[in-house]
Every structure is written in structure tokens, then in C-alpha cells.
Specification:
Elements: H1 3-14, H2 16-19, H3 26-29, H4 37-46, H5 50-55, E1 60-64, H6 71-78, E2 82-87, H7 91-98, E3 105-107, E4 120-126, H8 135-145, E5 146-155, H9 163-178, H10 203-212, E6 217-223, H11 241-258, E7 266-272, H12 278-286, E8 290-293
Parallel strand pairs: 1-2, 1-4, 2-3, 4-5
Antiparallel strand pairs: 5-7, 6-7, 6-8
Length: 302
């Protein structure tokens, strides 16, 4: 990838909120109190990191790509953390600070952070990794500025597919070829309007990153999410047809997964720079995390 392409990507992301319709700050002022379907979705995702927040109260957090009014930062502050919202574009972050939704915000390029090593206890990237032109550079930057762990909450790579679904897709692609339709080996190639390829999380890649850096532990929590336009203003109860549809779709995804016809579409990935305490690990296991204690590099002194 050329430097020109990368710079174009940065510029387009910097201009994103100026050129795209977005919801006003009034929607987020009482974001944690409003029983909306969208709040239900985001609270559900962020609740997976509650064991870290509740067992390390007051820890410092860096939030990357939190440009939509610092909504992740709001949640962390609500839970008692000291959190800093950052994004390559601070248009909406300024509004959030002025409205006292968050305490502080800064412009930062996730691929080139300006903070010294080990400046924060934790770094969180929620649903922004897949927008970065060079996301794995951002991951190493997160690791550099963190003392305890980095957390990513992101769409999950759909490869490898469950075996029954592989057979089904192979059959479907065979039919397509017979009737002369185009078939891509990887089924789909996703790009955003701003031009970048959409990266999705691969658990194995993060396990290898941790092993390569001689880190002690990784943890993964897979789950499903469903989004429909309009959820931002829908109540999170059965009076909302849209909310009922989200809950129904999540149940269908669970049933399909049970018969091997579907995989999870989201993942929480945690790379630990130091092992958490036993209470944190216990609560993570209760939330369904797959925790992997990694072998240390035998050629290094510990």
C-alpha cells in the first residue's frame, strides 16, 4: 500500500463527520438512561468488559476511534474508570466535552499515537479497528502505550466457516458456476465508501501477536450483534417492532449456530500484558470467555 493511499484514507476519515449525517448530542446526553434499542446493543457489547472495569476500578483507559461523541468513553466513566476519548476527527468529541458527556478528548491517529510507553492501564478499540488502513500497526501502538491489557470489540472474521455451512456454500457456488454466475473464492470482499478495506478480527492472529511479544495471556468472547437503521430512536421493549426483530434475529442466529449453519459475527479480544487477578478471571469465565494462558518464550529470561 502506498503512502499516498494511506494519507488519502486518513484525510477521508478526518472529514467523515463533516460529510456524513450524524445524530445530535441530545441523543447521547442521557445515553445511559434512555431505554433505546441502540443503547441496549452497545451496553450489551461493553458489558463484556465489566470484569476488568469492576475489579480494577479507577484504572486509566485510552479509547481509540471513539469519535461518535465518545460513547465508549461515557460507558467507562459511568463504571468509574478514568477514560480519554480519541479519534482522528474530534468534531463530535468537542461537542461531547462541551455537553459534559465526557471529561476529555484528543485528536489521535491510532496508527501513530503520541503518548509515551505505558501511559495507560488499558486501551480499548470498539468497532474502529476495521476502519483503519493499517489496523495491526494500531494494535502494536495500543500495546506500546498500555500497562495491563488491550481490548478490541469488533466484527469477527467469518473464516473458518462451520463445516455444514462450508458444504452448503460449496453446493451453492457449484450451482452458480453451472449457470454462469461469477463466484469469488472468499465469497465477499468488503470496502467502505471512504476507500479502506474492512478488516475483521481473527483470534488466531492475536494469539500469534501475543506469542511473538512473549505476553502471558489472551482471552476471547464471541457473540452476535444485529443492527438496523433507526434503532437509535427505538425503545428497547416489545412496543418496538424493530427491537423485537433484533431479539428475534439473535435467536435465529443462535439456532443456526446450533446446527452448524452459522458462526458468531462479533468478538471481544483481550491481549494481556500482565495476568489479571483471580476474581477478574473468574468473572470473565462466567461471561463465557475462552481464556488462554500462553507459554513463555523459553529462550528469554523471565
Amino acid at each position: 500500500m502506498s503512502d499516498d493511499f494511506r494519507q488519502v484514507s486518513y484525510e477521508k476519515h478526518q472529514q467523515y463527520y463533516q460529510t456524513t449525517e450524524h445524530h445530535g448530542a441530545e441523543q447521547y446526553r442521557d445515553w445511559f438512561k434512555k431505554p433505546t434499542a441502540d443503547f441496549w446493543r452497545h451496553r450489551r457489547k461493553l458489558a463484556f468488559i465489566d470484569p476488568l472495569l469492576e475489579n480494577d476500578n479507577g484504572a486509566s483507559w485510552l479509547c481509540l476511534g471513539d469519535g461518535r461523541y465518545g460513547s465508549s468513553t461515557m460507558y467507562l466513566q459511568w463504571k468509574g474508570a478514568k477514560a480519554l476519548a480519541t479519534d482522528i476527527n474530534d468534531l463530535l468529541l468537542k461537542v461531547a466535552v462541551e455537553e459534559k458527556l465526557i471529561e476529555k478528548a484528543e485528536v489521535q491517529n491510532a496508527e501513530s499515537l503520541t503518548y509515551p510507553d505505558k501511559s495507560f492501564d488499558y486501551a480499548l478499540c470498539k468497532e474502529s479497528f476495521h476502519h483503519f488502513p493499517r489496523p495491526y500497526i494500531a494494535v502494536y501502538e495500543m500495546l506500546r502505550v498500555s500497562r495491563k491489557a488491550i481490548i478490541l470489540i469488533e466484527p469477527k472474521d467469518w473464516i473458518p466457516l462451520p463445516l455444514p455451512l462450508r458444504y452448503f456454500r460449496a453446493f451453492k457456488n457449484g450451482i452458480k458456476r453451472m449457470i454462469g454466475k461469477e463466484v469469488h473464492d472468499l465469497e465477499k470482499f468488503n470496502y467502505e465508501d471512504v476507500g479502506n478495506y474492512i478488516y475483521m478480527l481473527s483470534e488466531r492472529e492475536f494469539q500469534k501477536i501475543a506469542l511473538g511479544l512473549d505476553l502471558p495471556m489472551v482471552a476471547f468472547k464471541s457473540f452476535d450483534d444485529v443492527y438496523y437503521p433507526g434503532v437509535e430512536n427505538e425503545p428497547d421493549n416489545d412496543s418496538s417492532p424493530l427491537f423485537r426483530k433484533i431479539k428475534s434475529d439473535l435467536q435465529k442466529m443462535k439456532w443456526l449456530r446450533a446446527i452448524g449453519m452459522n458462526g458468531y459475527n462479533y468478538s471481544v479480544t483481550i491481549v494481556f500484558l500482565e495476568k489479571p487477578n483471580s476474581q477478574t478471571l473468574k468473572e470473565m469465565q462466567e461471561k463465557g470467555y475462552r481464556i488462554m494462558e500462553l507459554p513463555r518464550n523459553p529462550h528469554l529470561s523471565h
